[in-house]
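Incident review: delayed structure delivery

Summary: a single-chain prediction request sat in the queue longer than the usual turnaround. Root cause was a stuck worker, restarted by the on-call engineer. No data loss occurred. The affected request and its eventual output are reproduced below so the record is complete for anyone auditing the incident later.

Affected input:
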Amino acid sequence: MSDFCIEEELKKLPGSPGVYIMHDAFDTIIYVGKAVNLKNRVRSYFRAGVPHTAKIEKMISLIDHFEYILTDSELEALVLENNLIKEHSPKYNTLLKDDKTYPYIKVTVAEDYPRILFSRQMKKDKSRYFGPYTSAFAVKETIDLMNKLYRLRTCNRFIKEGEENASGRPCLNYHMKQCMAPCTGNVSREEYRSNVEKALDFLNGNYGEILKSLEKQMEEASERLAFEEAAEIRELYFSVKSIAQKQKITDYEGEDKDYIGIASGEKDVAVQVFFVRAGKLIGREHFLLNDCAEDEKGEVLSSFLRQFYAGTPYVPTEIYVGEEVPDRTLIEEWLSKKKGRKVLIKVAVRGRKEKLLELAGRNAALVLSQDAEKIKREEARTLGAVKEIENLLGIPSIERMEAFDISNTSGFANVASMVVFEKGKPKKSDYRKFRMKTVTGPDDYACMKEALTRRFEHGLKLQSGEEPSQDSFVKFPDLLLMDGGRGQVNIAEEVLSDLGIHVPVCGMVKDDNHRTRGIYYQNVELPIDTRSEGFKLITRVQDEAHRFAIEYHRSLRTKAQVHSVLDEIPGIGEKRRRALMKAFTSIEDLKAADVETIAALPEIPKNVAEGIYEFLHAKDDEKKG
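Output delivered after worker restart:
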């Protein structure tokens, strides 16, 4: 933005709360910050004599222009800052390297016959949620155990009291004694919900009653000489005991708390979070923050708190840290609003809480030491590999690479895939699929020309402002990788030339065994060490482009197959067809299903399921005849 004069724009800044956004000369957002007074805060970056860390000094040297958004309050500015950081991942903000979602146990108490489910989200749907937990495996193991103990249903049928199908046949789980079969009217709502209450008790950590009950059942089975039954009960008994022992008590006050310890390495900072729920340590998780070891620990904690709790649906009532946090009152206000009750951030200085926080810090330090070698290996695989490709091609800076591939079967459903790697890692949110609109028959060159033209024409429209720019196409690659040699490269260069775009193009050449052999660039096939990290990265990119194209093509073939047959079945409209295509991946899967399985879909009544079954098997009989 050449006509932007920083000195003049600084004079126009308002003394109001808001968010400021720093851009470099390429219009890339490099930093986002909030301020209670935009004028004072933004000016401080450019004022002589104001001390800054080396990282911020580097950021300031790259600022070409800035913009700002006014807000009504500092709290609104904090929320907007979080959203913008998450959306743009600015290079000079302290960023979490992890993006985790935590599992919950969901009990659908609003249903007449509730179920216990695994969930990654906590919604306002009248269900009871327990968690978050840190191990998905442990959650699934616990759900499986509770269903065995309390014989609750696992199907997705809609069952309402008084509308049970008393004449229906129960599923296999009933015969395995793992379900009370409420779908058949085999159990009253009161009796079923009595077991649900016991399950809720279990999830609240009350294991005593079920352990006593299992002990009694074991003794009774042994007295009857039913040793096989006794052995099964014993397995359940020890499973319950194992889960009970994992719930290590660490805080006798019974509140929900998070303990956050941090440790600094040479460049990065590790954060360890201990999750205490109802007074019990249910798990821990670590996070890494980039290039902020020089920053004050309080500032690092502030960035972490805002990013972490913006991304998790659950907020505890108390959060313990080892350093005073800037904007603590503001962050507490934000978290309290999010939770719907008072949330406090406390600095632990003595006693049991301080020891637990110290333990979290020691674990964070351990993560840094253990991950140092792993991080080096990962950097060699990614950034190191990109550097090797830069040196091989003589291109100064490659951050984003895009690769394309074509897939078809004798010209049926021509498709193209576009995969994106940034800093040597796949960026799957930017992957795109193309179904050919102008090409019929098996013509890979024509397909590639159409896919590239559509990709870059759309990108030019986004860059010119003709269309909204929140799209991966707005950013052009630093290197374009084609699945093939001279022919594919020539097609790409022709498309780019016609559109007036300059992007280096190289081909990923394969040998007679369809394995990556080398790189074709500027009319020359360049030799490359097949043991190098650069070569391995090129192979990964090529394999990923091929995989993505094949998967898309396969899904189109499958849907076309299912769609054509379903259209012939009486009673199957658009809604039912969609439900069947979602539940069954192929026509063979649908044929293999029995009437009860098909009727288990909410959209398919029993008589329609019978019609589907008869139609498909009648067609098989016709073929055999």
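Verification: The first strand starts at residue 18 and ends at 23.
Action items: add queue-age alerting; document worker restart procedure.
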